[in-house]
Amino acid sequence: MSDTIEKVKCLIIGSGPAGYTAAIYASRANMFPVLYQGTQPGGQLTTTNEVENFPGNPEGITGPQMMVNLQEQSQRFGTDVRDGWVTKVDFSGDIHKVWVNDTKEIHCETVIISTGASAKYLGLDSEQHYLKMGGGVSACAVCDGFFYRNQEVVIVGAGDSACEEAHYLSKLCKKVTMLVRSEQFRASRIMEDRVRKTENIEILLNTETAEVLGDGQVVTAVRVKQRTTGEEKEIPATGFFVAIGHKPNTDIFKDYITLDETGYIVNTPGTSKTNVKGVFVAGDAADHVYRQAITAAGTGCMAALDAERYLASKE
């Protein structure tokens, strides 16, 4: 452990839209925030080529460039943006203790958790290739469905979110093929009925993805396998959507912060407050419903304002 303990008025853990927005507000309020970017600086948006639904960018913007802009804006007002990730916390006492990279110890008056959530993927090499290329693999239909207007796409998943995203895509795309690995949905009956009644959604049960096919740059088809017969076939598609869930990046907080059954942080409704005084949450670490950049940014603003008011109440 480091012999030197740093004292910080406001520590922000995570660097997506929530973290950077919190930093902008906190720095303008003279809270002198320190922000650690984490293992994926910029968050999930750094894997998105085009962002066209964030207000203020009429021509659209790439996800990485948007994160650069947000970082520079936060630094303009004095945010101390640092590399590194938080590996341990202790919120048991009045002083919020945080360790970075297992070595540096920081004592914080306030903490804003904006660690986000990571989309779950199948793990296929071909899937990861086209995800990194930005060539047709996505985990967010609302974010990227527009780019596949009047095209044919494939979506993997069996729960309510998968059904919701398939139905959303059906309004944009010529055809949506839904792959359900088992012989039945996990979704609620009303959501299952909705996709079954949608004419341009084809449902393939007992079907799993064998490979995402393409020309090296963009997706052109998906090879699938029927699990009962072993038969394989190719489905033409320009987009491959994965809707098998998200995992909130909250494991290091579980001994102190109240989490729901899937690991999302439970906040006081209408606020960013957690069960620990002086610790706040913003973005997808607490949001399993909307998961959009704009909603994350909004809760980042809330967290900074809540932290500012908390500090004022202690003076």
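The above is record 1. Record 2 follows with the same two-line structure.
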Amino acid sequence: MTGNHRDTTITRRRALAVTGGTVAAGGLAVAGYQSAFADTATEATASASASATSTSTSASCMTLMSSVTEGPYYLDGALVRKDITEGKSGVPLTLRLTVVDATDGCTPVPGAAVEIWHCDAWGYYSGYTTANPGGSAPAESEDGSTSNDNTYLRGYQIANANGVVKFETIIPGWYTPRTCHIHLKVHTGGEKEDGTYEGGKVNYTGQLFFDDDIAEAIFALEPYSKHTGSYTKLADDMVYDGGGASSGLLTLEPVHKKDPSKGYKGFLTLGVDPDAENTGAGGGGGGGGTPPSGAPSGAPTGAPPSDAPSASASS
């Protein structure tokens, strides 16, 4: 556990643990990364590239990454949308994830719904804005944004024909005793309904992680630097097991090499078993992390509006 931070400012409010998997390696990661971050030329080119990548690197897809619990901050009913920031400030992150079937040569899984959620730059989650993130941080209500306290930094995207989803968000802050991370679930068999994703089943529940050096550079910037105290590095985290990409470690590319405040592009290929089911509720490999002081034991604090997402029974 190391790292002392002081913070900056943000903006704000507006109105499976069995198996799953992440494919880590070699040609698939490299080729997939180049394809995912190439400027879009034509759909045909993108499709051909993705197909070639899947075909030429199917041997790289061998094992599934074990799922972990969803943690204490999950909420049902997240919105289907690409930009999940809702005005929350922080270092921009363009997150591109590719869902493939690890049981069938890493072929794309079109139509898979990828759901992500994470804390803001000071360590607060929507729905649980009074949970103390540890250390010393301003109250979440002081960030000055217009985001909705029950929906910010949560969302779904539906995978395209190449199994790719894209999110626009910010790099998360930290909270005691966890390292910097993003939660995710991969769903299949459901459909978009009333702005969210309904039905189907959860095939994989996992977390995405950030390199220590990148996190340290980001936490020195505003608004992150207003949250001071000791944060947990990867080697000391209770969930990350040191397996690199196969354990959820993102490949990150800076938008501007000399200026981390300009943001990053993050990439990972998620190798799942579309026949498996893993909600991530009720324990599992790696655990979800002990909630900090004041964290929820069941439901969001306060009285959410009638149209806000509800807390899952397992949270």
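The radius of gyration is 18 Å.
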